[in-house]
Structure formats: structure tokens, C-alpha cells
Hints:
The protein is mostly helical. Helices cover about 45% and strands about 0% of the residues.
Amino acid sequence: xxxxxxxxxxxxxxxxxxxxxxxxxxxxxxxxxxxxxxxxxxxxxxxxxxxxxxxxxxxxxxxxxxxxxxxxxxxxxxxxxxxxxxxxxxxxxxxxx
Length: 97
């Protein structure tokens, strides 16, 4: 029998700070399109693609997002309908090591 975990813990809503909004904007782009730039071909036959939503992103936040979402391991989760499940995966990917 399958085990099903329910995510019920609610989080307090806080007003986003300006820096948080910028981080959210950059990380959201990489959550959605980072797989395009990911190095997923171990033989090196196919080069990673460029995505227009990622090309103009630079700086420390973009570097961190690239490290998390454009490496050799990917996570395809932005299509999930339940926001709690997306958040659960996102928090584990973006958690400090």
C-alpha cells in the first residue's frame, strides 16, 4: 500500500523585501528554464541550450541559481499543480549544504 504524506503546515506571510523580490525573480527564471543550460550530456555530444529568460541574468544571485539549477543533476518540478509540493522540492534544492 502506498504511503501518502500530506503537507499541512502553514507558513506566516511576510511582506517581501526588495532584495527578496529580486532573488525570487532570478530564482524563478532558473527553476523554470535552468534545465536548458544544464550539463546533462555526459558524452558532451549536445551542448546546453541558451534560454532568453536566462541570458541577461548575471551577478551573485544568478551564479548561485546557475550552480543549483544548471549543473549535471536536474529537478523537474515547476509543472506540479500543488504549490506545497513545489515548495517542498524547491526548499530542498536551495537549502544550504
